[in-house]
Amino acid sequence: MVSTDFSVQITKSSAVKAAHWSSEPYILSLSNFDLISGRCPVTLFYAYLKPHRGDFSMVVAVIKSSLEEVLGHYLPFAGRIIPNAETGQPEILCNNEGIEVIEANANIDLACLDFYDLSQSLQKNLVPFQHEIPLRLQVTNYSCGSFSLSWTFDHALADATAFYLFLRSWSEVANNKPISKHPDHRRSIFQPRSTPTYGPSLERIFYNCTLEEVLNTPITNDISLKRLYYIEAADVESLQERASLDGRKRTKIEAFSAYLWKVLATTVKESDTQCMMGWAVDGRRRMSGRMSNLIGNAISMAVGEVSAEDLKQSSLSQVASVAHEAISEVANEAHFLDLIDLVECHRPGLVFPKILLGIGGPGMVVSSGRELPTTTEIDFGFGPPVLGTCYSTMARLGTGYINPQPSAKGDGSWVVFALVWPELVAALESDPEHVFKPITATHLGLTL
Questions:
Q1: What is the CA radius of gyration of the chain?
Q2: pLDDT by residue (tens digit) across 296-335?
Q3: Higher pLDDT, 160 or 23
Q4: Within a 10 A sphere around the Cβ of 246, how many other Cβ atoms?
Q5: Which pLDDT value is given to residue 370?
Q6: What's domain 8-189's superfamily in CATH?
Q7: Are the CB atoms for 389 and 415 separated by under 8 Å?
Q8: Helix (H, G, I), strand (E, B), or coil: what is residue 420?
Q9: CB under 8 Å to 237, separation ≥6 — which residues?
């Protein structure tokens, strides 16, 4: 039976450092892409069945020993983010101070967690974010012998692509395998041009602001509900087929976004005539040079804007075409070079996507984890996870946030994290197509 009446007791906390550290501390400057992140916390939650060998103490021992080894390749992750003495802007002090690893016990079976209403369950398992420690891990043992790993890291340290590369390297070390993709820490390759310049399209997407403005942005919707959904593979395929009816094949994310956008339009107030949709776009594949293994941030934001009435009247394929055009406008090297220059022109102020502040009307941001390593690759030698998802501990956000990832089943189904408001939850769950299904332990292969 699903329960929210449980407690988590922390039993130990320790700092894990790189095993082979011989250099003096050094400073790693953040790139202009890193500065766009806004220092927000990012959390990942992975759940694993009871290991076939060993117990929880063995799990912790393997996690810590392999972490010591892999940190030799990811020294910035064991450092601290500090303000520059002259500019006040953040930079990474690579001093091997270590990653905090917290050990905990939960008096509940993993299958009894409420995986749907994450505010009632995962919030008790997550690692509180502290700016002083850019990366923390909590290893939680459950009554049934299962365990979970929850990481919280500072977005200035890495984006999702970089952090998943770290997790894959870590799991390879834990399984006594060589690291398949060696990290590239050259954040300095993202330099502004000698005469910084950028086009007007960036000013449409980004906003030059202060931290105080970000923290005090008026929030019109109660974007506080944190839900986890399951989307069947057949529904994913059906959306893509319908979005491609005009003869141009659309991606699964474009089709999914079109569906979400149309549902969003049914929830807005009469005074909100426009609906926004944003997409996180990775620049690694769009910029020249070999940077697939780049550690840090290389993310921009694509934004589309359509009237609520047009969204209601348009077909799924028509809305998917709008999504495609918006993403294509950003998915090129010229855009990312302009973005580097935009941030440079506004130093030391912040440059932040307007949609995240709720500027322009109600909206959603889709940040897909579908191109990242599969959930099953994050295996530390005790079997693959039954669930891998992101989570947000942020208290304020001006827009909804959706993160679809392949489920651990590997059959084309998705697990979708949603940070949304009540009206959108009601619309998604009452939609006749039933694409968004509240996730249960059964979807994860767990037995109550």
A1: 22
A2: 999 999 999 999 999 999 999 999 999 999 999 999 999 9
A3: 160
A4: 12
A5: 64
A6: Chloramphenicol acetyltransferase-like domain (3.30.559.10)
A7: yes
A8: strand
A9: 412
Q: Who has greater pLDDT, 241 or 215?
A: 241
Question: Which single residue is written with the structure tokens 């799991």?
Answer: 171
250's tokens: 């659309």
Q: DSSP letters along 19-74, please?
A: SS--SPPEEEEPPHHHHHTTT-EEEEEEEEPPPSSS-HHHHHHHHHHHHHHHTTT-
The domain spans of the chain are 8-189, 200-372+392-444
Taking the CA atoms of residue 122, residue 35, residue 339 and residue 42 in that order, the dihedral angle to the nearest 10 degrees is -10
Residue with token string 């991606």: 251
Phi, psi angle pair for 279, to nearest 5°: -135, 130
Considering the domain delimited by 200-372+392-444, tell me its CATH architecture. Answer: 2-Layer Sandwich (3.30)
Closest C-alpha to 9, from 152, 109, 141: 141
Amino acid at 411: D
CB 52 within 8 A of CB 383: yes
Matching CATH topology for 8-189 and 200-372+392-444? Answer: yes
One-letter amino acid at 28 equals L
In DSSP notation, 119-181 reads GGTGGGTSPPPBTTBSEEEEEEEETTS-EEEEEEEETTT--HHHHHHHHHHHHHHHTT---SS
